[in-house]
Amino acid sequence: MMRDERAEQGRASMVGRRSFLCFGVAAATSVILDPAQALAAGRVAPPRRVSLLNTHTGERLTAEYWNRGRYQRDALRAIDRILRDHRTDAVHPIDPGLLDTIHALHARLGARAPLHVISGYRSPETNEMLRETGGGGVARSSFHMRGMAIDIRVPGTDTRMVRRAALRLRAGGVGFYPQSDFVHMDVGPVRSW
C-alpha cells in the first residue's frame, strides 16, 4: 500500500511539473509573440529589437521597435524603409506581428548576427514580374504585398534549422527554399511548404 501511495505521489508530482513547464512555455510565448497581451495581463515584457541586413541594398538596421507597452513609431518607419521593395523603392507598413515573429525566431535560435533579408515588402508590379519570370513559387496574392511576409537567412545557421525553429513558433506560414538558401515566414494562416 505504501508503494502505491508513493507511486501516486510521484505521478502527481510529474503532472505538476509538466503543468508548470507547459504554463511557463505558454507564458513566455505570449510575451514573445504578443507584447500587448502580456502588458494587459500585468506582465512587463522586455523591449523588442530586430537586427536586419538587406542583402540587395547592403543597408543594416538594429531597431528597438517595441518598448513600454507600445510599438515605436520611428523604429517602425525605419524598418518599413529597410524592408521596402528594392526594385521599385516602394515603402509599405510592415505588420508588427511579423516583427514579433522574427524577433521570436532570432531569440529561439540564439542568433547574434543580423537576419539577412532577401525579400520584405513587394509591390504588386514586382510580385507580378517575379511570378512571370520566377518559374513558380510566387503567390498571386502574396503576403509580401501586404507587408506580412519576409524571406530570410540567418548567418551561421543551417537553413533547415531556421525552418524547424520557424515551424515551432506556429505563428503563420513557413516556406523552405533550400536551393535558394532562405526561409519564408508570414503572419497568415499556419501552414508550411
TrEMBL record:
Record pathway: Cell wall biogenesis; cell wall polysaccharide biosynthesis
Cofactor (UniProt): Zn(2+)
Annotated CDD domains: Zn-DD-carboxypeptidase_like (cd14844)
Keyword Isomerase: no
Annotated Pfam families: Peptidase_M15_2 (PF05951)
Alphabetized Gene3D superfamilies for the sequence: 3.30.1380.10
UniProt keyword annotations, A-Z: Cell wall biogenesis/degradation, Hydrolase, Metal-binding, Metalloprotease, Protease, Signal, Zinc
Family to which this protein belongs: Belongs to the peptidase M15 family.
Protein name: Murein endopeptidase K
Organism: Skermanella cutis
